[in-house]
Design goal:
The protein has eleven helices and eleven strands. The longest helix is centred in the middle third of the chain and has 15 residues.
Length: 281
């Protein structure tokens, strides 16, 4: 049995699908009673894994999402180990290894990595670049105006398709050869925001544009939209650093999966419906 936290997130949901298709038994942890998962998936509320209860019985491996696990990641892993679990795979960020953005966000990921290393479980750490799915935040602007407004247009990152992260996670959860490994997962092309917008335009078959705004303008707009302050803090802090030096690019996905990492253009084509009027995000 494999336990997946953050199961409704972009990586967690795809990992669940891959595991179920491979024949693995999967338990997902979610607060959303309406969340849909593949047939045969066991769904539990976070409160059901807070102790040595039935939800952890038979669990051999855990996909640990720091945001989903919250402040009690150490407790979850301790309970899981007590119930017989052997392995944990941590979704982390490449900023632990290549600092960018405000230190507190990097420190949050580092703290969870340290918890996994000290848990007594075999561990694998996936340090990921920014997700392609993050650009879904542009959908409304593209639908209404065809223009994306953003700060730091010169910032460059090797954005990764979350489906590639999920594929690596599924491997690490099911094969002990990955125990004790730290994998830096990125796409294979370094792109700026305007270049991503152009790729979306190609996928949609219409021209789109990127309009530069100041960081303060973007921050005010995000706060006015009801987003918590940590969202613009996280985004703008990272972009400011990547405008000075591009984020790293690795071939780790290719090495582990035996194929190239998916391109952002491929992601855009596969998700183009999310950027059309009435699109399903």
């Amino acid at each position: 049995m494999i336990l997946v936290t953050g199961a409704t997130g972009a990586v967690g949901r795809e990992t669940v699908r891959l595991l179920v298709e491979s024949g693995a038994k999967v338990t997902v942890v979610t607060r959303d009673p309406r969340a849909a998962f593949p047939s045969g998936t066991q769904v539990v509320h976070p409160s059901e894994v807070a102790g040595l209860g039935g939800a952890l019985s038979g669990v051999e491996a855990i996909l640990l999402s720091p945001r989903a696990a919250g402040a009690d990641a150490a407790g979850l892993l301790a309970h899981a180990r007590g119930a017989g679990a052997k392995r944990v795979v941590v979704l982390s960020a490449l900023t632990v290894q290549y600092p960018a953005g405000l230190p507190r966000f990097r420190q949050q990921f580092q703290a969870v990595e340290d918890i996994a290393r000290g848990s007594g479980l075999d561990w694998t750490i996936l340090r990921c670049a920014d997700f392609a799915a993050n650009t879904l935040a542009w959908a409304r602007q593209i639908q209404l105006t065809g223009t994306v407004r953003g700060a730091y247009p010169e910032a460059r990152t090797s954005t990764i398709d979350e489906r590639d992260i999920a594929a690596v996670a599924a491997l690490a959860l099911t094969d002990s050869v990955h125990n004790g490994q730290v994998y830096l997962l990125t796409g294979e092309e370094s792109l700026s925001q305007p270049e991503k917008v152009a790729a979306l335009g190609t996928a949609l078959g219409r021209p789109l544009s990127f309009a530069e705004s100041t960081p303060d303008e973007i921050r005010r707009g995000m706060l006015a939209a009801g987003l918590p302050a940590e969202v613009p803090d996280r985004l703008l802090g990272s972009l400011a650093d990547y405008a000075r030096e591009a984020g790293p690019t690795t071939g780790t996905v290719r090495e582990l999966l035996g194929r190239p990492a998916r391109t952002y253009a491929t992601w855009a084509l596969d998700h183009r419906s999310a950027f059309t009027a009435g699109g399903d995000r």
